[in-house]
Automatic annotation (TrEMBL):
Compartments in which it is found: Cell projection, Ruffle membrane; Cytoplasm; Membrane
EC annotation from Swiss-Prot or TrEMBL: 3.1.2.2
GO cellular component labels: cytoplasm; membrane
Predominant place of localization: membrane
Organism: Gordonia humi
Membrane topology recorded in Swiss-Prot or TrEMBL: Peripheral membrane protein
Top-level class of the enzyme under EC nomenclature: hydrolase
Family membership: Belongs to the THEM4/THEM5 thioesterase family.
Enzymatic reactions: octanoyl-CoA + H2O = octanoate + CoA + H(+); hexadecanoyl-CoA + H2O = hexadecanoate + CoA + H(+); decanoyl-CoA + H2O = decanoate + CoA + H(+); tetradecanoyl-CoA + H2O = tetradecanoate + CoA + H(+)
GO biological process: fatty acid metabolic process
Official protein name in the record: Acyl-coenzyme A thioesterase THEM4
UniProt-listed CDD domains: PaaI_thioesterase (cd03443)
Gene3D superfamilies according to UniProt: Hotdog Thioesterase (3.10.129.10)
Residue ranges annotated for the Thioesterase domain, each copy included: 72-140
Length: 172
C-alpha cells in the first residue's frame, strides 16, 4: 500500500516483556469507559486487542451504521481512532504505557458498513521514548489492504501524565 512515512533506519529493536499477554490472549489493561476499548460506553469501538506472536497484535471491528461517514461507508475519523487504539495497545507487549504523538493513516478503499475490519499491528522499534508502530487493515483478503497506519507513540509515566485530568468519578 502507498504511504509516505519513513521510520528511522536506526530503531532500537525491542523484546517482548516476560509478563506480556500470551499469543491469542486479550490485552486488557485499559479502563471500561475508554472510547476505543471500554465495555461501559454505549457508543464506543469496543475493540478487543489480541496479542500475537513477537511484537504483533490484532483486532476485529464490525463496521456499524453509527460509524458512517460518506453514505454507506466508514467515517475516516472512526477508522483513525480504531488504528490509534490497536496500535496504542501494542506497547503493553513490551511493558510500556504510551500516548499517541503522531498518527498517519492511508485510506486505500472505501470500507462498507456491515463489513468487519481486521487490524494487524507491529511494533517496529524504539528511539529513546518514541515507539514506532505500523498497522494494516483488511476486510477479508489479507492480500488486499483497505487502509494502513504509521505512528509514533511516546512512553509515559501514567500517574504523572494523567494526574491533572484524571476523572476519579468515572475511573476508579
Ligand atoms: C492501553 C492504551 C491504549 C491507548 C490507545 C489510545 C492512545 C491515545 O489516543 S492517547 C491520547 C492522544 N494523545 C495525547 O493526548 C498525547 C498528547 N501529547 C503529549 O502529552 C506530549 O506531547 C507527549 C507525551 C506525546 C510528548 O511530550 P513530552 O513527554 O514532553 O516529551 P517530548 O520530549 O516532547 O517528546 C518525546 C519525544 O517524542 C517526539 N515527539 C513528540 N511529539 C511528536 C510528534 N507529534 N511527532 C513526532 N515526534 C514527536 C519528540 O521529538 C521527542 O523525541 P526525541 O527523543 O527524538 O527528542
Amino acid at each position: 500500500m502507498k504511504h509516505a512515512f519513513v521510520p528511522p533506519a536506526d530503531l532500537e529493536p525491542l523484546q517482548r516483556h516476560p509478563k506480556a499477554a500470551a499469543p491469542g490472549h486479550h490485552i486488557d489493561l485499559h479502563h471500561s469507559t475508554c472510547f476505543g476499548c471500554g465495555d461501559d460506553v454505549p457508543l464506543g469501538l469496543h475493540l478487543k486487542v489480541i496479542a500475537g506472536d513477537g511484537l504483533t497484535v490484532s483486532a476485529d471491528m464490525p463496521v456499524a451504521s453509527w460509524m458512517q461517514g460518506g453514505p454507506g461507508v466508514i467515517h475516516g475519523g472512526v477508522l483513525s481512532a480504531a488504528f490509534d487504539e490497536v496500535m496504542g495497545t501494542s506497547p503493553l507487549l513490551i511493558g510500556s504505557a504510551v500516548v499517541t504523538a503522531h498518527l498517519e493513516i492511508d485510506f486505500a478503499e472505501p470500507i462498507p458498513l456491515g463489513s468487519t475490519l481486521h487490524f494487524d499491528a507491529r511494533i517496529l522499534g524504539r528511539q529513546r521514548r518514541k515507539v514506532y508502530i505500523a498497522s494494516v487493515a483488511h476486510i477479508g483478503d489479507p492480500e488486499r489492504p483497505v487502509a494502513s497506519a504509521h505512528s509514533i507513540f511516546v512512553t509515559i509515566d501514567v500517574k504523572e501524565h494523567f494526574a491533572e485530568h484524571y476523572d476519579k468519578r468515572v475511573i476508579l
